[in-house]
């Protein structure tokens, strides 16, 4: 009788947490924004982490890397970040999401007015990274720069950026750049929301179809709200680039942090610094 009562009042086991598919480990990296220094340090840290785990990519055990978009603009070396990404893709399973800054970059080739808007939101630094000197840049009006732009950025580079994905699903998680429209199922999401949404998504406190891992909105620390996890820690201005590592039902954080002295240090743990 006593044992039966104990069983009756035994607390229910905790609900299982969200998981990525068995045999996979995901490294999800936030908005890089031209910070090649932090990105190269993160690449080295991820590769070291994979090697420490045995370095297996044999089908049963696979490391997968996802970049959440906004590789370009604001920081000093967008072209270098794109090149490093392509090189990493030759070695690893690296998938790249389109961010709103990639979209602005590509649209800047359509009209001088869009180019002007792009320049105000970090595009100047991107264009300079493609080999235009500051001195020459300062002599050009918007029409001259618009005419020069296709010669500065090869079509192959633009095609590569245009190939970036909009959404990646991994088990109980979905990876997007900005967020999702909470009122719509995943298959009904608009590209404009995936790349640009903010308040309607950030203010939503109810459950979502999957845990959304996103960038786009800068936080001082990784923002884990249960239904979503924001990992854009403002690398271009804070000197902190964040990666969320997901394996089975476990989460941890890796961060590349640049000190005032110029050194980049890697921090790891279950909480952000």
Task: Describe the 3D structure.
The protein has 273 residues and is an alpha/beta fold. The protein has a domain at 23-196 and 204-214: 4-Layer Sandwich (Purple Acid Phosphatase, chain A, domain 2), CATH 3.60.21. Helices cover 37% and strands 20% of the residues. It is built from eleven helices and eleven strands. A hairpin with a 2-residue loop joins strand 4 (168-170) and strand 5. Helix 2 (36-52) packs parallel to helix 3, helix 4 (100-107) packs across helix 5 and helix 5 (112-129) crosses helix 7 (142-152). The longest helix is centred in the middle third of the chain and has 18 residues, at 112-129. The radius of gyration is 21 Å and the shape is globular. 37% of the residues are buried. The mean pLDDT is 93.
List keywords for this structure.
five-stranded mixed beta sheet; 11 helices; 11 strands; single chain; Purple Acid Phosphatase, chain A, domain 2; alpha/beta
Write the topology of this structure.
Elements: H1 2-9, E1 24-29, H2 36-52, E2 62-67, H3 78-89, E3 93-96, H4 100-107, H5 112-129, H6 134-137, H7 142-152, H8 155-162, E4 168-170, E5 173-175, H9 191-196, H10 199-202, E6 211-214, E7 223-224, E8 228-230, H11 235-238, E9 240-247, E10 250-258, E11 264-269
Parallel strand pairs: 1-2, 2-3, 5-6, 6-8
Antiparallel strand pairs: 1-9, 4-5, 7-8, 9-10, 10-11
Helix pairs in contact: 2-3, 4-5, 5-7
